[in-house]
Structure formats: structure tokens, C-alpha cells
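Person: I keep going back and forth on a fold encoding question. Show me how you would write down a chain together with its backbone fold. Please set it down just below, with no commentary around it:
Helper:
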Amino acid sequence: MVDTMAMMLPFLRPSRTTRTAPRPVPSGPGTDDEVLLDAPDARLSPALVAAARGDHGPAAALLLATRAAAEWERRDRYVTRLAAFARSRPEWLDAWLATSPQDPDALLVGAQLAVDRAWRSPARAELLRELSPLITAAARGDQRDPVPWRLALDHARGARAGHTYFEELWAAAVRRAPHHHGCHVAALRYLATHWHGSHHECFDFADRAAQDAPAGALVQALPLRAAFGYLTDGCGPEVPRARLDAAAARALALSPRLPAADPWPAPMRNLLLFVLVRLERWENARDQLRLNGPYATSFPWDQVSDDPLGHFLDVRDRIRAGAAGDPSWHPPGERGGRDRTGDH
């Protein structure tokens, strides 16, 4: 396992440190009605509204703009959200593919949708293997784009691809974007899936990636993802508390660099809240709750509850109680320990 990890990390270099002044912290949500679950940002929202009317034009313009400006992190998020919308409302995407069958943006959303659908099937591995041509076509659309390679990495994990093939995909992905968060999460998930309980190796991978990345890159939160994987898994050796705290510290340093009370960093901040609560770091959690504003995200709460919004609200109450010096109240399923339902 260690040898394979070494093969997957040739692009990582020694760490560097950068400091930044924190931004002003806004007030947090005041009532339950003000909390929004999985809210789109200001750029994605018009595209989703138009897609609901059957118009793919704004979605096409949005993804074209992200590709032209090499906004790979946002492009990845938008592709995932658009494909999720198309699961129940596919007409706009069908029309887009019919009118522009070679459009790299349409091909990418279509490939993401196909993978999402196959992933939900009991015959996942077999169905995913049949989708390789769709992902290949999407990858050929723009040689700079790492997002099809993130999709290919996810596909390889679900199709139970071997290590050699995965390493080839990984090398292609990091050539395009050495610090792309989505590709790193996909690699972390592969490691966790193929070596269940390999939390130390996952932390090693995540720490090296974060050390090499710019201070404001989302990859700085990759160790937080490794911490979440450990805290929600009942398998594998113990990880020292200091390593969990270090993962949280990286994400705490990243958070003030990102917009406050904004949907874009909400997934990272929700994950940070999850880990901080497990570590009972109430003051840090209260500060992040204020930075996060009214934005709840399904992940990570859907990994421990069938009601992610309700669970987020329970956790918010727990944070307020803990920061006030009364950590005795625990929402259901949150009284310490390590859950087994989570996924890196």
C-alpha cells in the first residue's frame, strides 16, 4: 500500500506557508426558516431556472465561461449540480446534446449524468464499464480541462479498476491541474475504497497535497476530508487526535480566505463544522457557523442522517450550547464514536 501511495504522489513538492488577514465575520442564521439547503450560487441559479423551462442556453454559456477562464473548481461544481438537476428534468440536456452533439460542455454534463445514474444501480460496476466512451468523448473536448478526468477517476473507483489504470488517470489529471480539489477527492475516495481502513495513508496523501497547494486552494481542506473519513468509519487503526486537529487547523486557515455567508464555500464549511463538533471545538465551530451564514449542504450530514437539513439544525443548536459552556446536549446519533456510514 505504501509503495502504491508513493507512485501516486510524484507531483507533490515541499510545503510552503502563506498568511492572510481574516475577513469580517457576519452574523449567522437566526431562525430555522432562514437556513437554505444546497442553495446554488448567483451564477448557477439562472442556469437552473432556465433549465427548468427547457432552455439550455444559460447552462451552456455558464460552462463555456468557466472553461474559457480555466475556473476548474467552479466548473466541476456546476457540472455536478447541472447533472443532478437533469436526473429528474433531462429535457433541456437532451435538447442541448441533440443540437450540439460535439459540445464539450454538453458531453461532460451528459457523461456525469450517465455515471450518476449507473452509480445508483446494484449492477454499478458493469454499467459503469459501458460508459467509458462517454467519458473519453468528454475528455477530448478540451485538453486543458481536468473535470472529465475527475469523472474518470470516480468512474474507475466504481468500476473497480486496477491500480495501474487508476494511476494513469491520476497522472493525466494532475498534468492538467496539479491542485484540483475534485481530482484529489476522487483519489482519496479510491484509496479509502480499495484499502478500507487505510486512514494513515489517506492522511499522508491529503497532507502532502495540501502542503504543496496555494494557501487559498480548496485542496487545503483535503486533510479535513480524510478526517471525516476516519471519523465516520469503524475500521482501521486509530489516528492521533493531533492529526485530526491539524486537519481542522488547515481548513480553519482556509475559511477566512473564502467569501463569507456565500453558497460557494458552504460545502467546505459544513464539513468543517462536522469535524469541529466531533472534536468538541465549540468556539471554532461557532465562528464557522457565523462565517457559513444560512447555507446548509446535504453532504456531510446525509452520511449520518436521512434528514440532512434537520440534522444541520440540530448540530447548530449543539454548537451554540457547547460554545455557551453546556455541551451536555447531543442530537441523536452524535454522541461520540465513529459512524460506519461515511464515505471519503
